[in-house]
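Q: Convert this sequence to C-alpha coordinates.
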Amino acid sequence: MLNYRNTSAGFLILTLVFFVIWICTSITCILIYCLIVFLYLLFLTLGAAKIQMNFYLKAIHNGSLDEAKVALTFDDGPDEVTTAGLLNILEKHQIKAAFFCIGSKIEKNELILKKISENGHLIGNHSWSHAFFFDFFLPGKMIREIKKTDTIIENISGIPVKLFRPPYGVTNPFLSKALKRTRHTVIGWSLRTFDTAKNRQSVLKRIETRIKNGDIILFHDANPKTLNFLDDAIELIKYRGMEIVGLDELLKINIKG
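A:
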Protein backbone atom coordinates (compact mmCIF):
# COMPACT_ATOMS: atom_id res chain seq x y z
CA MET A 1 0.00 0.00 0.00
CA LEU A 2 1.44 3.33 -1.09
CA ASN A 3 1.28 5.73 1.84
CA TYR A 4 3.54 8.10 3.74
CA ARG A 5 4.77 5.53 6.25
CA ASN A 6 5.61 2.82 3.69
CA THR A 7 7.13 5.25 1.21
CA SER A 8 9.34 6.83 3.87
CA ALA A 9 10.39 3.43 5.18
CA GLY A 10 11.32 2.33 1.66
CA PHE A 11 13.30 5.51 1.09
CA LEU A 12 15.24 5.05 4.35
CA ILE A 13 16.02 1.43 3.49
CA LEU A 14 17.32 2.39 0.04
CA THR A 15 19.38 5.19 1.57
CA LEU A 16 20.95 2.70 3.98
CA VAL A 17 21.65 0.23 1.16
CA PHE A 18 23.39 2.90 -0.93
CA PHE A 19 25.39 4.03 2.10
CA VAL A 20 26.55 0.45 2.80
CA ILE A 21 27.48 -0.08 -0.86
CA TRP A 22 29.47 3.14 -0.84
CA ILE A 23 31.33 2.21 2.39
CA CYS A 24 32.06 -1.37 1.35
CA THR A 25 32.94 -0.92 -2.32
CA SER A 26 33.68 2.78 -2.78
CA ILE A 27 31.20 2.64 -5.67
CA THR A 28 29.12 5.78 -5.87
CA CYS A 29 25.74 5.79 -7.55
CA ILE A 30 24.91 9.44 -7.07
CA LEU A 31 22.73 9.74 -10.15
CA ILE A 32 20.64 6.72 -9.17
CA TYR A 33 20.30 7.97 -5.62
CA CYS A 34 19.31 11.44 -6.86
CA LEU A 35 16.58 9.79 -8.92
CA ILE A 36 15.33 7.95 -5.84
CA VAL A 37 15.30 11.21 -3.85
CA PHE A 38 13.40 12.90 -6.68
CA LEU A 39 10.80 10.12 -6.80
CA TYR A 40 10.42 10.22 -3.02
CA LEU A 41 9.81 13.98 -3.04
CA LEU A 42 7.43 13.56 -5.97
CA PHE A 43 5.35 11.02 -4.04
CA LEU A 44 5.28 13.32 -1.01
CA THR A 45 4.05 16.19 -3.15
CA LEU A 46 1.43 14.16 -5.03
CA GLY A 47 0.26 12.59 -1.78
CA ALA A 48 -0.27 16.04 -0.28
CA ALA A 49 -2.06 17.49 -3.31
CA LYS A 50 -4.27 14.50 -4.18
CA ILE A 51 -6.44 13.56 -1.22
CA GLN A 52 -7.79 10.54 -3.11
CA MET A 53 -4.42 8.79 -2.70
CA ASN A 54 -5.02 8.45 1.07
CA PHE A 55 -1.28 8.99 1.35
CA TYR A 56 -1.08 10.81 4.69
CA LEU A 57 -4.49 9.94 6.10
CA LYS A 58 -7.57 7.93 5.26
CA ALA A 59 -10.47 9.83 3.71
CA ILE A 60 -13.81 8.74 2.24
CA HIS A 61 -14.19 9.72 -1.40
CA ASN A 62 -17.28 7.89 -2.64
CA GLY A 63 -20.19 5.66 -1.74
CA SER A 64 -21.19 2.31 -3.18
CA LEU A 65 -20.46 1.74 -6.86
CA ASP A 66 -23.39 -0.67 -7.01
CA GLU A 67 -26.12 1.93 -6.47
CA ALA A 68 -27.07 4.81 -8.74
CA LYS A 69 -26.83 7.35 -5.95
CA VAL A 70 -24.67 10.46 -5.53
CA ALA A 71 -24.29 13.19 -2.91
CA LEU A 72 -23.76 16.94 -3.26
CA THR A 73 -21.24 18.75 -1.07
CA PHE A 74 -20.43 22.46 -0.81
CA ASP A 75 -17.23 24.05 0.48
CA ASP A 76 -16.07 27.46 1.71
CA GLY A 77 -19.33 28.95 3.01
CA PRO A 78 -21.53 30.06 4.50
CA ASP A 79 -22.18 33.10 2.34
CA GLU A 80 -25.07 35.43 3.02
CA VAL A 81 -26.19 35.58 -0.63
CA THR A 82 -24.88 32.50 -2.40
CA THR A 83 -25.55 29.93 0.31
CA ALA A 84 -29.04 31.29 0.86
CA GLY A 85 -29.76 30.98 -2.86
CA LEU A 86 -28.40 27.46 -3.05
CA LEU A 87 -30.54 26.44 -0.08
CA ASN A 88 -33.62 27.62 -1.97
CA ILE A 89 -32.66 25.52 -5.00
CA LEU A 90 -32.02 22.45 -2.85
CA GLU A 91 -35.34 22.96 -1.06
CA LYS A 92 -37.15 23.21 -4.40
CA HIS A 93 -35.74 19.83 -5.45
CA GLN A 94 -36.13 18.36 -1.92
CA ILE A 95 -32.44 17.45 -1.82
CA LYS A 96 -30.21 17.17 1.24
CA ALA A 97 -26.57 18.16 0.87
CA ALA A 98 -23.46 18.53 3.03
CA PHE A 99 -21.89 21.92 3.72
CA PHE A 100 -18.25 22.09 4.82
CA CYS A 101 -18.07 25.47 6.51
CA ILE A 102 -15.28 27.87 7.43
CA GLY A 103 -15.48 28.97 11.06
CA SER A 104 -14.60 32.63 10.47
CA LYS A 105 -17.39 32.87 7.87
CA ILE A 106 -19.88 31.23 10.23
CA GLU A 107 -19.09 33.96 12.75
CA LYS A 108 -20.40 36.53 10.24
CA ASN A 109 -23.33 34.43 8.97
CA GLU A 110 -24.77 32.57 11.95
CA LEU A 111 -28.34 32.82 10.64
CA ILE A 112 -27.32 31.13 7.37
CA LEU A 113 -25.69 28.26 9.24
CA LYS A 114 -28.81 27.93 11.36
CA LYS A 115 -30.91 27.67 8.21
CA ILE A 116 -28.57 25.01 6.78
CA SER A 117 -29.13 22.98 9.93
CA GLU A 118 -32.88 23.60 10.12
CA ASN A 119 -33.26 22.48 6.50
CA GLY A 120 -31.76 19.13 7.41
CA HIS A 121 -28.41 19.43 5.66
CA LEU A 122 -25.20 18.03 7.11
CA ILE A 123 -22.58 20.46 8.36
CA GLY A 124 -18.89 19.65 8.31
CA ASN A 125 -15.74 21.41 9.48
CA HIS A 126 -13.54 23.13 6.87
CA SER A 127 -11.15 24.78 9.38
CA TRP A 128 -11.51 28.19 10.99
CA SER A 129 -9.39 30.32 8.66
CA HIS A 130 -8.98 28.28 5.47
CA ALA A 131 -5.64 30.09 5.39
CA PHE A 132 -3.42 29.65 2.33
CA PHE A 133 -0.67 28.46 4.67
CA PHE A 134 -2.95 26.19 6.73
CA ASP A 135 -0.91 23.14 5.74
CA PHE A 136 2.22 24.71 7.22
CA PHE A 137 0.58 25.06 10.63
CA LEU A 138 1.84 22.80 13.39
CA PRO A 139 -0.62 20.14 14.64
CA GLY A 140 -1.46 22.14 17.76
CA LYS A 141 -2.60 25.16 15.76
CA MET A 142 -4.59 22.94 13.39
CA ILE A 143 -6.34 21.33 16.35
CA ARG A 144 -7.24 24.73 17.79
CA GLU A 145 -8.73 25.81 14.45
CA ILE A 146 -10.72 22.60 14.08
CA LYS A 147 -12.04 22.67 17.64
CA LYS A 148 -12.94 26.36 17.41
CA THR A 149 -14.98 25.66 14.27
CA ASP A 150 -16.62 22.62 15.88
CA THR A 151 -17.67 24.76 18.81
CA ILE A 152 -19.38 27.49 16.79
CA ILE A 153 -21.18 24.93 14.60
CA GLU A 154 -22.38 22.94 17.60
CA ASN A 155 -23.50 26.06 19.48
CA ILE A 156 -25.69 27.09 16.54
CA SER A 157 -26.94 23.71 15.29
CA GLY A 158 -26.90 21.70 18.51
CA ILE A 159 -25.38 18.78 16.60
CA PRO A 160 -21.85 17.42 17.20
CA VAL A 161 -19.52 17.83 14.23
CA LYS A 162 -18.08 14.57 12.94
CA LEU A 163 -16.93 15.49 9.42
CA PHE A 164 -13.85 17.35 8.25
CA ARG A 165 -12.69 18.31 4.78
CA PRO A 166 -9.14 19.71 4.53
CA PRO A 167 -8.75 23.20 3.07
CA TYR A 168 -7.86 22.89 -0.62
CA GLY A 169 -8.03 19.11 -0.18
CA VAL A 170 -4.38 19.14 0.87
CA THR A 171 -3.07 16.71 3.49
CA ASN A 172 0.23 16.19 5.29
CA PRO A 173 1.68 14.48 8.39
CA PHE A 174 0.76 17.47 10.61
CA LEU A 175 -2.89 17.28 9.61
CA SER A 176 -2.89 13.51 10.06
CA LYS A 177 -1.60 13.94 13.60
CA ALA A 178 -4.17 16.67 14.37
CA LEU A 179 -7.11 14.61 13.09
CA LYS A 180 -6.06 11.60 15.13
CA ARG A 181 -6.64 13.85 18.15
CA THR A 182 -9.92 15.35 16.99
CA ARG A 183 -11.25 12.03 15.60
CA HIS A 184 -13.13 13.51 12.67
CA THR A 185 -14.18 11.46 9.67
CA VAL A 186 -12.36 12.94 6.68
CA ILE A 187 -14.41 13.45 3.53
CA GLY A 188 -12.87 13.89 0.10
CA TRP A 189 -14.66 13.74 -3.24
CA SER A 190 -14.74 11.68 -6.42
CA LEU A 191 -16.15 14.30 -8.82
CA ARG A 192 -14.75 17.80 -8.74
CA THR A 193 -16.84 20.23 -10.77
CA PHE A 194 -14.25 23.04 -10.91
CA ASP A 195 -17.16 25.41 -10.45
CA THR A 196 -14.83 28.17 -9.23
CA ALA A 197 -12.74 28.10 -12.40
CA LYS A 198 -14.91 26.92 -15.29
CA ASN A 199 -17.99 28.39 -16.94
CA ARG A 200 -21.50 26.95 -16.76
CA GLN A 201 -21.21 24.91 -19.95
CA SER A 202 -17.88 23.36 -18.93
CA VAL A 203 -19.16 22.44 -15.47
CA LEU A 204 -22.27 20.75 -16.85
CA LYS A 205 -20.22 18.93 -19.49
CA ARG A 206 -17.83 17.68 -16.83
CA ILE A 207 -20.72 16.33 -14.75
CA GLU A 208 -22.38 14.75 -17.78
CA THR A 209 -19.26 12.89 -18.92
CA ARG A 210 -17.75 11.93 -15.56
CA ILE A 211 -20.60 11.18 -13.15
CA LYS A 212 -20.80 7.61 -11.84
CA ASN A 213 -22.44 5.61 -9.07
CA GLY A 214 -21.44 6.65 -5.57
CA ASP A 215 -19.94 10.00 -6.49
CA ILE A 216 -19.36 12.63 -3.83
CA ILE A 217 -19.63 15.81 -5.90
CA LEU A 218 -17.72 18.95 -4.94
CA PHE A 219 -19.23 22.42 -5.37
CA HIS A 220 -18.50 25.71 -3.60
CA ASP A 221 -21.22 27.77 -1.94
CA ALA A 222 -18.96 30.80 -1.68
CA ASN A 223 -18.94 30.98 -5.48
CA PRO A 224 -21.78 33.11 -6.94
CA LYS A 225 -21.46 31.32 -10.30
CA THR A 226 -22.74 28.11 -8.71
CA LEU A 227 -26.16 29.74 -8.41
CA ASN A 228 -26.32 29.96 -12.20
CA PHE A 229 -25.98 26.26 -12.89
CA LEU A 230 -26.89 24.24 -9.78
CA ASP A 231 -30.50 23.87 -10.89
CA ASP A 232 -29.40 22.59 -14.31
CA ALA A 233 -26.76 20.36 -12.72
CA ILE A 234 -29.39 18.70 -10.53
CA GLU A 235 -31.68 18.14 -13.52
CA LEU A 236 -28.75 16.70 -15.50
CA ILE A 237 -27.84 14.29 -12.70
CA LYS A 238 -31.45 13.12 -12.48
CA TYR A 239 -31.59 12.72 -16.28
CA ARG A 240 -28.56 10.45 -16.06
CA GLY A 241 -30.61 8.18 -13.79
CA MET A 242 -28.86 9.12 -10.57
CA GLU A 243 -30.64 9.68 -7.26
CA ILE A 244 -29.25 12.55 -5.20
CA VAL A 245 -29.19 11.57 -1.53
CA GLY A 246 -27.70 12.91 1.68
CA LEU A 247 -24.07 12.16 2.34
CA ASP A 248 -24.97 10.06 5.37
CA GLU A 249 -27.33 7.93 3.25
CA LEU A 250 -24.74 7.56 0.50
CA LEU A 251 -22.09 6.39 2.96
CA LYS A 252 -24.56 4.39 5.09
CA ILE A 253 -23.24 5.85 8.32
CA ASN A 254 -24.80 7.89 11.11
CA ILE A 255 -23.12 11.27 11.06
CA LYS A 256 -25.99 13.46 12.21
CA GLY A 257 -26.12 12.69 15.89
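The longest strand covers residues 69-77.
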